[in-house]
Structure formats: C-alpha cells, structure tokens
Amino acid sequence: MQILLIRHGATASNLKRLYLGRSDEPLCEAGVEQARARFAAGLPAAEKVFVSPLFRCRQTAAILFPDREPIVIETFAEIDFGRFEGRSHDELMRDEPAYARWLDSRGEGAIPGGEDMASLRRRCRDGFLDMVAQSLGCARIAAVAHGGTIMAVLGEFCEPPRAFYDGFVKNCGVVRCAWDGARLRLEGGDLS
User: Fold this and answer.
1) Phi/psi at 87 (nearest 5 deg)?
2) Nearest Cα to 21, choosing from 161, 149, 183?
3) CB of 131 within 8 A of CB of 50?
4) CA 112, CA 70: separation in Å to the nearest integer?
5) Residue 86, CB half-sphere, CA atoms under 13 Å: how many?
6) How far apart are CA 48 and CA 69, in angstroms?
7) pLDDT along the chain (192 residues), means of 10
8) How far apart are CA 140 and CA 178, in angstroms?
C-alpha cells in the first residue's frame, strides 16, 4: 500500500516560529495558499484520507482531498508542548529554564505541563497501526497530520531506520511511502 504523509499548511504561529502543539489554530492565508498550490500541482488520488483531530489538519485535508470525508485518528494530534506552547525559542531561552534542559536532551526530556517524546512515539505508532488496519485492501491512502506526528511515524516504521528529526517536513510537504505490512520504505517527497 502506498501512504502519503502530509503536513498541514502553515498557521500564524508556524510563520512566527512559535511552538504550536495542541492549540487548535486554523490555517493562515499563506497556509490556505500552500494547500491550494499543492492541490493544483496534483496529488495522487487516495482511497481513504486520515487526519489529526486538530482543525489545521482537517482544513488542509478538505483542500487537498475535497472528494473524501476524512477519518479522524485522535492519536495523530501534535505533541502537547505544555508551558512551551505559543512561545518562541528566544522567549523560552530567556524565561524558561526547563526549556534549555529539554533542548539539551534533544527533545527527549520532560516538557513541563506537556507530553514527553516517548508518549508521542507510542500514541503515533498506535494511530498509524489503527490507520493501516482500517485500510486493508486499499492501494493508496493519505494522512494529513503534524510535523511531530510524521517524524514519530517515520522514526518508528522506516526501513532503513531514521532518526526522529531526519523526518522533518515543511508545511504542506508530502512524504511518499510504501507499507509492506511491517515497515515503511520511502519513495520520495519533501523531507528536509
């Protein structure tokens, strides 16, 4: 089965380079234009489209796949950034000592009031397996989710293995993968 992993279009917080996790922010005009441009450039048809429950993903999916009713995968929500949510790197470096510790851990440490990387990986793995179980017999499916979700899925299932941050995808980027029932093989796309 081919799987298209698609990051949502840009939001105002994305453009300001703020941590955006569980805040349910819509696409900004630039994000809507990104999605329209991606649609105009053409995407392969998908038999099923899955989305994070957050509006920016549902909004992107509606633009990219207007003929498909998306299926929500609750566990595809972005990481909970807790006290880091809505704040910039510079602000956090100045005002939040826990942020420097989190950076020193390469994102593996605790986020005050938020989620840890192990929890993100676990729930994204479970969501991915749920998605493929709902897609038996499909030739191609798509998932519109978040940068953290895509990195977690690629880190968990790619063959050859990939480090978490090697799976970074820009807003409205697409990663094309083949699923053999156990592992993902990258076929191309917009990985940085």
Assistant:
1) -120, 155
2) 149
3) yes
4) 33
5) 6
6) 8
7) 98 97 97 97 95 98 97 97 96 94 92 95 97 98 97 95 89 96 92 65
8) 9
